[in-house]
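In response to reviewer comment 3 from the previous cycle, which asked for concrete evidence that the modeling workflow produces usable outputs, we include below a single protein chain processed end to end. The sequence was submitted unchanged, and the resulting structure tokens are shown without manual editing.
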Amino acid sequence: MKYTVGHLVVGVLIFAALVLTATSCPSVGPGMVVTITASPPGDKLAVSAIFTFEATVTGCTVCTVTWSATAGSIDGTTGTYTAPASVIPGGTATITATSTEDPTKSDSQVITILGPASGEIRVTDTDGNPIVAWHVSGQPVNQAADFPLKIWNVGETPLTILGLSGLAAPFSLVNPPATPLAIAAGEAQALTLRFAPAGEGSFSDTLIITNSDADENPTTLALEGTTSGFCRDTRVIGCGRGKRP
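The workflow returned the following structure tokens.
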């Protein structure tokens, strides 16, 4: 077989071009993945708060994202997010980072929108155990059973007690404080509940504590009392436990 010099040169050039073309192609990775890498602590933001989200993209050639939000506003390029000015229905917003190169690839983060900073209410017995109810059984007629409790402010700003209501005989508060009443952070207001039946029967009522807690207003305490028998069993139901110690 005979080759001319011209044909040989052309063949070498074509081969070299093919090699260069092949080696210039980007390597094929395991697939594109978008990941939000910076989100607010606890995935919570107060109303009107500003936070800048961050994201990484792997397996990409153009490794940038665009941002979107279901509530509030976000800069589509920088990821700087401004929470709504008030608590929204459902209380959450979804932040999404979408690949610029492949819009089918994205990552989302759900955040909770909190109301303005406020006190945090907690009702306890005198030992500090959270309670949601008080029950007295076998209370003698014309005798009183008292139960001391405390309303704590476990938040970081003052808590305002706007009202103490809902009680009717035979339930009452002993020397209730005047409202509105401010409770400083870390402090408590003492109260005393009383059950004093004037006749036989079974009774129930609810103490309603109207307050400035953003998500626990009003706070209620369920009350029950009976006069059957002559022995008395005073019980306190613990918050979240459903037990009567």
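Residues 5-23 form the longest helix (19 residues). We consider this sufficient to address the reviewer's concern, and the full set will be provided in the supplementary archive.
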